[in-house]
Design a protein that fits this description.
This protein is α+β, with helices and mostly antiparallel strands and 201 residues long. It folds into 2 domains: 2-76 and 194-198, 3-Layer(aba) Sandwich (Glutaredoxin); 83-189, Glutathione S-transferase Yfyf (Class Pi), Chain A, domain 2 (Up-down Bundle). It has helices spanning 11-20, 38-41, 62-72, 83-108, 110-113, 117-141, 155-168, 177-188, 190-198, and strands at 2-5, 26-29, 51-54, 57-60. It has a 4-stranded mixed β-sheet, covered by helices on one side. Helix 4 (83-108) runs antiparallel to helix 6. The protein is globular.
Length: 201
């Protein structure tokens, strides 16, 4: 498998999952300029990462890629073997992907959304407050658990990735002790450390 990525962006979640699943992979770093060029747009017309190439399959969208990785190596246990368990993983994967990741778009793209400094500041503050509220929901879910869905799954590397963004953008996660404990566990994980090193993070 070949993973196209921007360092620290959402493909980090797939990178970690590949290591957890012990799947051989090749990494291809791309720049923000490259992802808008015809060669890359032929793989992903959205001009975004991640892109995962496996033989004749070219796959985009983090949630789909993470599920593909999990299903390729079911013995890694990154997706449960019961319908109820898979639904629980997909519920939290959806929250991270569709709610947290999407909301971060306002912070990353504030200058392109609002033209005035005052408006940009207001949008940034309201977005950070919304993110805090969503992260609080995840913090409650982690009470008494090491992993979001109860057992280690494809949700966890994605949550770790967006928590890195929260720290980089100074989103207030203070007092969310379950999330902080989760983050510390992820930071100590050998596969996470390997992935960060390979991305130069």
């Amino acid at each position: 498998m070949k993973l196209y990525y921007l360092p620290g962006a959402c493909p980090l979640a797939t990178h970690i999952a590949l290591n957890w699943a012990n799947i051989p992979y090749e990494l291809q770093a791309v720049s923000r300029e490259e992802i808008k060029q015809p060669a890359f747009l032929a793989m992903n017309p959205m001009g975004a990462v991640p892109v995962l190439v496996d033989g004749d399959l070219t796959l985009t969208q983090s949630a789909a890629i993470l599920e593909y990785v999990a299903e390729t190596r079911p013995e890694a246990g990154l997706l449960p073997d019961t319908a109820q368990g898979r639904a629980e993983v997909r519920r939290w994967l959806g929250l991270v992907n569709a709610d947290i990741h999407r909301t971060f778009g306002n912070l990353f793209g504030v200058a392109g959304l609002i033209s005035t400094p005052e408006g940009q500041q207001e949008l940034a503050e309201k977005t950070a407050a919304k993110l805090r509220n969503i992260f609080t929901i995840v913090d409650r879910q982690l009470e008494g658990k090491e992993w979001v869905a109860g057992a280690r799954s494809i949700v966890d590397p994605y949550l770790y990735t967006v928590m890195r963004w929260a720290k980089a953008k100074d989103v207030d996660l203070s007092g969310l002790k379950n999330l902080e404990a989760f983050y510390a566990r992820m930071e100590a994980d050998p596969a996470v450390q390997k992935s960060l090193k390979e991305q130069g993070l």
